[in-house]
Design a protein that fits this description.
- This protein is an alpha/beta fold.
- It is built from nine helices and seven strands, in the order H-H-H-H-E-H-E-H-E-E-H-E-H-H-E-E.
- Helix 2 (16-23) crosses helix 5.
- The structure holds S-adenosylmethionine.
- This is Methyltransferase domain-containing protein.
Length: 229
């Protein structure tokens, strides 16, 4: 078993920082509390957060209600998190949650905008698939340009196999994006992780790619890319 599996597999029960992050939403409307609880359950936040540096300025692009940013901040006291999203309503709930803690701020940002850096790390968790492939590539380029020397880019997206996991995810995303409109976006484009990895290598980054889908119904993949110092 790899280190990553050990981090991610012992159930999905939140650790202390996860409990503290979820508790930030205790006075939020039921729909928001349910949404963040489902995000914790379905996404491998612990493994994604473990790929971030333990200190420094970190930006999450497409932070939604902000649970991942909150968790990343609460799990390492040296991290200062800024989350941005195109969805004003989600950002309002994220800002309400962030009032209960420090080292955590949220702001609305238009699509394609990357806040001024330099950032020690930037992270995307299930966001890029909502953009066409060409827009994914240019957003990644823009983000890499805002990283500090030696900075880290962390991308968690879905893979394109096995077929049954892809089908499961497609049904879920069709409901979420096109039917219930819980997630902003009009279509989705699941780019193979090897393609994303290639784009980042073309930008001169050193890239590691790992699967995170063991014991999970979603085809989670993690890409960790580092800029040279
Ligand atoms: C599946 S949610 C993930 C939210 C959060 N990262 C998490 O892991 O819980 C996808 C988020 O991406 C946001 N989003 C979609 N297109 C975006 C864009 N072009 N720029 C920034 N955020 C975007 C949506 O508003 C939504 O909040």
């Amino acid at each position: 078993m790899s280190t990553l599996d050990r981090q991610d597999s012992p159930g999905r029960r939140p650790d202390a920082a996860g409990r503290a992050a979820l508790a930030l939403y205790r006075t939020a409307p039921l729909a928001v509390r349910a949404h963040v609880a489902v995000r914790w359950w379905s996404a491998p936040f612990r493994a994604v957060a473990a790929a971030l540096p333990s200190s420094g300025r970190i930006v999450e692009i497409g932070c939604g209600h902000g649970l991942f940013s909150a968790y990343a901040a609460l799990s390492a006291p040296g991290r200062v998190l800024t989350g941005v999203d195109i969805d004003q309503d989600k950002i309002r709930h994220a800002q309400a949650a962030a009032r209960r803690t420090d080292r955590l701020t949220f702001a609305h940002a238009p699509s394609g905008a990357v806040p001024e850096g330099p950032w020690d790390a930037a992270v995307f968790v299930d966001v890029l698939y909502l953009l066409p492939a060409a827009a994914q590539r240019s957003l990644l380029e823009e983000t890499v340009g805002r990283l500090a020397p030696g900075g880290t880019l962390v991308v968690k997206e879905m893979g394109v196999e096995p077929a049954w996991k892809v089908r499961w995810n497609t049904v879920q995303e069709t409901l979420s994006v096109k039917v219930l409109r819980i997630t902003e976006g009009s279509s989705f484009d699941f780019v193979p992780p090897a393609t994303t990895t290639g784009w980042l290598e073309d930008l001169g980054l050193v890239v590691e790619h790992r699967r995170l889908d063991r014991h999970r119904v979603h085809a989670h993949h993690l890409i960790v890319a580092r800029r040279g110092a």
